[in-house]
Design a protein that fits this description.
With 296 residues, the chain is α/β, with parallel strands linked by helices. The chain has one domain: P-loop containing nucleotide triphosphate hydrolases (Rossmann fold, 3-Layer(aba) Sandwich). It is 43% helix and 12% strand. It is built from 14 helices and seven strands. A hairpin with a 5-residue loop joins strand 3 (76-77) and strand 4 (83-86). The model is unreliable at 261-270 and 291-296 (pLDDT under 50). Bound molecules: adenosine-5'-diphosphate and magnesium ion. The site of adenosine-5'-diphosphate has 17 residues, from helix 1 and helix 10.
Length: 296
């Protein structure tokens, strides 16, 4: 059975698509059978791995969500073995409205997964930059979620809204939804501000932040225009190194889950406390840091 992960943040430009595509490709390289679901009508993820729009115009995630076809029919192989994609295009922007009138509209993706989840080790969902019905479908279908966050001034802005949405989904639709972690992206080690933001976020959120930090790396920005994930574009780049490390961290996290409870921190230890609630309590601290200590 696949582990289903939603890459979500309602902010645009924080690295959701870059992280979805490249994490998925790196999991595939580790011989984990991986499916990338492009759930953003912009379709950047689909283009990033070199699928031509004509190829999937009639059969993509949109058609599967509205029930015209089975999800299996909307899945395409990539250049990499073990790495498949279910693409999207502009049509998907209509789905948000079309789904509203359908029965069980929040569960369309979850139900569509039933036919294919046994075929994969991982399913990564690249969410759109909103907390609308598509993201709700992703969070309902997922076992866990990752929040990419740029190491920038006001990185935390919007996080309370995001966590409140997750809380709502957890209480109404998907009680087992877990946070895999906050992923710091586009980090520039030469920037004092980036260092400060990364340190503060790590200090406050502790184990909830992935140890792997994704550096700002021009190769990561270039590779989509060549239709390749970073590991096929430049295996020696810092970007490849980082996403391979992230894949490894995720795989190990899963393997050792629940095995080191006695020496883990409060967030992991206290099963009664939902991570979102713990995190929500920490946000005012971060915001005061953002507005007092880090204002340029
Ligand atoms: N680590 C990185 N280094 C350099 N450029 C990056 C990096 N991550 C993302 N980008 C670039 O930043 C832009 C936004 O990233 P993207 O992954 O599309 O964000 P989102 O999906 O959250 O909107 C894209 O042009 C992408 O190529
Ligand atoms: Mg995107």
């Amino acid at each position: 059975m696949a582990k289903i992960i939603a890459m979500m943040n309602q902010k645009g430009g924080v690295g959701k698509t870059t992280s979805s595509v490249n994490l998925a490709a790196c999991l595939a390289v580790a011989e984990k059978k991986t499916l990338l679901i492009d759930l953003d009508p912009q379709g950047n993820g689909s283009i990033s791995i070199g699928l031509s729009k004509d190829k999937f115009a009639g059969k993509n995630i949109y058609h599967a969500l509205i029930g015209q076809i089975g999800l299996k029919e909307a899945i395409y192989e990539s250049e990499l073995p073990y790495f498949d994609i279910c693409p999207s295009d502009n049509n998907l922007s209509g789905a948000e409205i079309e789904l509203v009138s359908l029965f069980a509209r929040e569960s369309k993706l979850k139900n569509a997964f039933k036919a294919i989840e046994k075929d994969y080790d991982y399913i990564i969902i690249d969410c759109p930059p909103s907390l609308g019905l598509l993201t709700v479908n992703a969070l309902n279908a997922a076992h866990s979620y990752i929040v990419p966050m740029q190491t920038e001034f006001l990185a935390m802005e919007g996080l309370a809204q995001l966590l409140n949405t997750v809380k709502l989904i957890r209480s109404s639709l998907n009680p087992d939804l877990e946070l895999d972690g906050i992923l710091l992206t586009m980090y520039d080690s030469r920037s004092g501000l980036h260092k400060q933001v990364a340190n503060e976020i790590k200090t406050h959120f502790g184990d909830v932040v992935f140890e792997t930090i994704i550096p700002r790396n021009v190769k990561l920005a270039e590779c989509p225009s060549f239709g390749k994930p970073i590991i096929l574009y430049d295996i020696e780049s810092k970007g490849s190194e980082a996403y391979l490390a992230l894949a490894k961290e995720l795989i190990l996290k899963e393997r050792f889950k629940g095995k080191s409870k006695e020496n883990s921190n409060e967030v992991k230890n206290n099963a009664e406390v939902l991570p979102e609630e713990v995190l929500l309590n920490l946000i005012p601290n971060i915001e005061s840091i953002n507005t007092n200590g880090m204002h340029p």
